[in-house]
């Protein structure tokens, strides 16, 4: 499908902050999420994102909707997103109910991002067969839509019959689906209100665009192209190196789960026994797959360089009516003040340029 030439009247461009994971040296401190979400709202961002994993040694956030409910009470405008909730691990009725409650607590600000995950131990812990995860997600999206009508519904694929869910959301609750594989991208285009790319490499985004355009009209303002973009801002005060070290610690945890699997960065070796910071003061990640942490950062440098990279990504998505960039710069850090400074710095030195670019494009 091709988009009409007069998309400018339909364009939507939004910018979020993510991903909050709760990881922290010495254990999780989920209380940090509240001031970070408030700072993101005050800095002018449109959304704040949390995510989900289970059983990790660094306290990685296992309950994104619980945290989103807490954040709803300290914010008033910013959307609250799950990027992503591991949908097949959740009972469909409980998920429908919890999402509706968070939607009501936040006055309709929940963005429900769903995915299938990849960690075998998580499926084992929840007693779910990973071979069923794609089919379960397909059935779940339909079941959520039926559940949120407030009327009794059946879902034979999920073993549900005559189920009624209350309360219902305040309105239409957006469901986005994440994933890289062609089946995941197609699923998002056919079933969801948006597709969330977890790594904002331009070739990955372009491939997703080509796949989505086969099943979804890019001109449709009701479908969101969302992209996570890992960003490190070098401001000359060491903040960039600190962010890289924090990101490297987080990435090694991911790669321990992914060892032996083909993921977007290639075949992941086992990083056990290596130090992602190593002896490198910038913490570029000895032992990480494919040559260190810089391989996982899509936008880095001074504010002008980071802005230019993000504008290039927006240009790649110019044919899509609704685009949402999630700037991923909340890497696990023991210093809350450092994270708050990152939010404010991005809000002051990067976000205005993105907004100005969007305004010029919309008026073109």
TrEMBL record:
<dbReference type="GO" id="GO:0005829">
    <property type="term" value="C:cytosol"/>
</dbReference>
<dbReference type="Pfam" id="PF00296">
    <property type="entry name" value="Bac_luciferase"/>
</dbReference>
<dbReference type="InterPro" id="IPR036661">
    <property type="entry name" value="Luciferase-like_sf"/>
</dbReference>
<dbReference type="GO" id="GO:0016705">
    <property type="term" value="F:oxidoreductase activity, acting on paired donors, with incorporation or reduction of molecular oxygen"/>
</dbReference>
<dbReference type="InterPro" id="IPR011251">
    <property type="entry name" value="Luciferase-like_dom"/>
</dbReference>
<feature type="domain" description="Luciferase-like">
    <location>
        <begin position="20"/>
        <end position="310"/>
    </location>
</feature>
<protein>
    <submittedName>
        <fullName>LLM class flavin-dependent oxidoreductase</fullName>
    </submittedName>
</protein>
<dbReference type="InterPro" id="IPR050766">
    <property type="entry name" value="Bact_Lucif_Oxidored"/>
</dbReference>
């Amino acid at each position: 499908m091709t988009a009409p030439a007069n998309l400018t009247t339909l364009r939507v461009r939004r910018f979020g902050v993510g991903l909050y994971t709760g990881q922290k040296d010495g254990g999780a401190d989920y209380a940090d999420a509240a001031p970070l979400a408030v700072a993101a709202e005050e800095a002018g961002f449109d959304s704040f994102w949390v995510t989900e994993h289970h059983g990790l040694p660094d306290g990685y956030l296992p309950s994104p909707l619980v945290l989103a409910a807490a954040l709803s009470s300290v914010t008033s405008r910013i959307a609250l997103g799950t990027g992503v909730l591991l949908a097949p691990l959740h009972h469909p009725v409980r998920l429908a109910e919890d999402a509706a409650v968070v939607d009501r607590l936040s006055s309709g600000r929940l963005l429900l991002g769903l995915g299938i995950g990849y960690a075998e131990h998580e499926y084992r812990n929840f007693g779910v067969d990973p071979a069923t995860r794609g089919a379960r997600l397909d059935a779940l999206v339909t079941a959520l839509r039926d559940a949120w009508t407030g009327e009794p519904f059946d879902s034979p694929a999920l073993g549900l019959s005559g189920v009624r869910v209350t309360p219902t959301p305040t309105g239409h609750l957006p469901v986005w689906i994440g994933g890289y594989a062609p089946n995941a991208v197609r699923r998002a285009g056919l079933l969801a209100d948006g597709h969330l790319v977890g790594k904002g490499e331009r070739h990955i985004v372009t491939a997703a665009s080509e796949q989505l355009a086969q099943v979804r009209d890019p001109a449709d303002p009701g479908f969101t192209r969302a992209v996570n973009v890992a960003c490190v801002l070098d401001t000359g005060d060491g903040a960039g190196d600190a962010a890289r070290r924090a990101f490297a610690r987080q990435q090694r945890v991911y790669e321990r789960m992914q060892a032996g699997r083909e993921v977007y960065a290639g075949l992941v070796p086992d990083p056990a026994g290596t130090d992602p910071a190593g002896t490198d003061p910038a913490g570029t990640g000895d032992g990480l797959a494919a040559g260190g942490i810089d391989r996982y950062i899509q936008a880095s440098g001074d504010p002008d360089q980071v802005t230019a990279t993000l504008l290039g990504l927006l240009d790649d998505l110019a044919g899509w009516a609704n685009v949402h960039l999630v700037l991923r710069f909340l890497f696990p850090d023991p210093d809350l003040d450092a994270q708050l400074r990152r939010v404010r710095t991005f809000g002051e030195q990067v976000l205005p340029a993105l907004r100005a670019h969007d305004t010029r494009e919309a008026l073109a």
